[in-house]
Write a structure and sequence with these properties.
The protein has about 130 residues and is mostly helical. Helix content is about 70%, strand content about 0%. Helix 4 (about 45-75) runs antiparallel to helix 5 (about 80-110). The radius of gyration is 28 Å and the shape is flat.
């Protein structure tokens, strides 16, 4: 770890003060929890698309690696077990199917609270005589 000198720490402090003094508008607009939550929500809005793309790419990669391991098993069965290729193929298939499962889950549950509501108890009748 690098040891900071007093001069380096003074420069860093001056830069931080300068950045904070110049960003008063940014600090003033995000001063309550609602604004912070709204900013986080807007920031992660595109996250499902990123997860979908990464899932497809990793699924294809694991599938290709699984096929190559099965080829290695066919060429030399004593050195490469069949389970290595099978596990990679299964992981690739699971990753490739993840976006479809995620979309069907969202369609089933929904993105609003209208589809899933807790049960309400209005009254209790015991019918005891």
């Amino acid at each position: 770890m690098k040891v900071f000198t007093k001069q380096t720490l003074k420069i860093q402090a001056a830069v931080m003060v300068g950045l904070m003094a110049g960003s008063e508008d940014a600090l003033a607009s995000a001063n309550n929890f609602s604004d912070i939550a709204r900013n986080i929500n807007n920031s992660i809005e595109e996250l499902p698309g990123l997860v979908t793309g990464l899932s497809y790419m990793m699924g294809l990669l694991f599938g290709t690696l699984g096929i190559m391991k099965i080829k290695d098993h066919v060429e030399n069965p004593t050195q490469t077990p069949l389970k290595d290729g099978a596990v990679r193929l299964a992981a690739g298939g699971a990753l490739f199917g993840l976006p479809i499962v995620f979309e069907s889950m969202l369609n089933t549950i929904g993105t609003t609270n209208a589809g899933v509501e807790p049960a309400e108890l209005n009254r209790v009748i015991f019918n005891v005589r």
